[in-house]
Amino acid sequence: MSWNYSDNEFIKIFRKMLNWEWYTDVNTKTLFIHCLLKANWKPGSWHGHQYDRGQFITSLPSLAKETGLSVQQVRTALKHLKSTGELTDKKYPKFRIITVVSFDKFQSINRQTNSKPTAKSTVSQQATNRQSTADIRTYKNSKNIKKKEGESTFDPDDYVYDFATTDVDDDDW
Fold first, then answer.
1. Dist CA 98 CA 90 (whole Å)
2. What is the 3-state secondary structure (H, E, C) of 13-60?
3. What are the pLDDT digits (tens) for 95-119?
4. Are 31 and 25 in contact (CB under 8 A)?
5. Cβ-contact 95, 59 below 8 angstroms
6. DSSP of 137-167, one letter per residue?
7. The CATH number of the domain where 32 resides is what?
8. What is the pLDDT of residues 63-100, one digit of tens each?
9. Domain span at residue 97?
């Protein structure tokens, strides 16, 4: 599957979610992450109903179909998330508007950019790389001297992959 990504088509999930009280409840966790993904990143309207950033319009059957949960499992998970303040919802006859309460806190618009010059880091990195390369050349030279002198050249370090001097594609991982 090939996806097209834009700047606003992602969510942040913080590692501290591992300590969240609903983390081990698979249905509740599934529904919450689904709600984070579904929540709109900007205000809009649907069939004359306005929604804000962090809200989306849905129904229990739609959530069940989208998450693979039953309607009852969605209802229970929604009850959990409302009881602890992660979500609120407003019911209408054929749909509901769900609000991720702290959407702005967790999905901030402000992006941290690395626009400051990084000359110091780059210089340090280059120096480290140069040093590694020099050490490898020294190692190879000493290995060649041993070969000339007839010594055994087995060295367990020969089997260590050197990432500093070898190009590695992401596909190799």
1. 7
2. CCHHHHHCCCCCCHHHHHHHHHHHHHCCCCCEEECCEEECCCEEEECH
3. 999 999 988 887 776 544 444 444 4
4. no
5. yes
6. HHHHHHHHHHHHHT-----GGGGS--TTTS-
7. 1.10.10.10
8. 999 999 999 999 999 999 999 999 999 999 999 999 99
9. 15-106
